[in-house]
Amino acid sequence: MTNDSIIAETARRMLADLCEPQAVNRASDDSWMAPAWHALENLGLTRTWVPEELNGAGAEVAEGFAVLRETGRAAVSLPVAETLLAGWLLSQAGITPPSGVLTCGPARVGDQVVLAGSGTLSGRLRAVPFAKGAEHLAVLAEREAGGTGVVALVKAGDAEIADGASLAGDPLNTVVLNGVRPVEVADATPALDGNALLLMGAAVRAMQMAGALEAILDIAVAYANERVAFGKPIGKFQAVQHNLARLAGEVAAALAAAGSAAEVIATASAFDEGVLLEAASAKIRVGEAATEGAGIAHQVLGAIGFTKEHVLHRYTQRLWAWRDDFGSESQWAVRLGQLVATKGADALWPMLAAR
After folding, report:
1. For residues 292-298, average pLDDT
2. Most CB contacts within 10 A, which of 41, 156, 280, 296?
3. Is the CB of residue 164 less than 8 Å from the CB of residue 174?
4. What is the rounded distance in angstroms from the CA atom of residue 153 to the CA atom of residue 185?
5. Which residues pair with 104 in a beta bridge?
6. Quick check: bond before 35 cis, omega within 30?
7. How far is CA 142 from CA 85, 152, 220, in A?
8. Domain boundary among 190, 224, 241
């Protein structure tokens, strides 16, 4: 998967101008957020996955993933990914996404929202990213009477949203829907269920993490070439070179896994076992790379990398936070294990070779 589309280039330049990590890190308050968000929204980047007939950008799925990679490279602390994903969910049911900040759920395995016969929603959603501050929620719900699920648009003000924050300090909130009447509701397609949303969310986070890993590799290499010890740059020492090579390997693996998952989702007609294999594998492998890569980067930078003044923490803390969103490595590993066990040992190699 390449990252050279016009949309990706536009996102790269806009994020560099408005959300440059070091400038954001030095900001004394959050006054930069509103202008940056409005600029990104006006360009249509937050509606990349919404069709033109629903007032969106009408871009390809692959282009949306390219934007997500750029948000990871910039360690963006704005709900670009969440709004993009919510727009995708709403558009799958033919609902026009409203303007403003959106987020969606369920974002955790086991969470459930139920649509009662009276037309109201009830349920509890754990750890919904950027729910606090969102104007609307896109919710995937099941009918109380059974049958096809629904996609619902809910005003955030009608839900009970608890305070909370991720490891990176971004909003991460519990959302309680207690007899909430949605603004709009529509039947979900048969292929769109909680599993599909989690798979899409897992692929989204995998791509963001891959982008963040790219950035910390650049940071670590630049620091190793600038920091002098014993009369020469530390990048000349074999131990440091070895660590940087390991980090580069983890970044390459993360990009390959995330890119493969994005490509399969972009071409698949449904969230079948092929998508499960790719998206789950990506979330697992990129999560592992995030752990290893963040550790190596902090080793290379030493004490300076742990300070609030240095930008590295904006990346590593988000890497650690994103690992748990839309299913952790262990949860997806269990799903993959169940898939392999169900199909039997003889089907494993054909399944892998078909990818």
Report:
1. 97
2. 280
3. yes
4. 6
5. 138
6. no
7. 19, 10, 47
8. 190
Angle among Cα 67, 2, 328 to the nearest 5 degrees reads 60
| Residue range 165-206, pLDDT digits in tens | 999 999 999 999 999 999 999 999 988 998 999 999 999 999
Q: Is the pTM of this model over 0.70?
A: yes
The type of residue at 274 is: G
| CA distances to 102, 234, 269, 337, 344 from 281, in Å | 27, 35, 19, 11, 18
Q: Tell me the backbone φ, ψ of residue 57, rounded to 5 degrees.
A: -80, -25
* 179 and 200 together in one domain: no
Verify that 254 and 318 share a domain, yes or no: yes
- Residue 292 neighbours by CB under 8 Å, 6+ apart: 246, 247, 250
Q: Residue 67 sits in which domain range?
A: 1-76
Q: Residue 138: left (phi > 0), alpha (psi -120 to 50), or beta?
A: beta
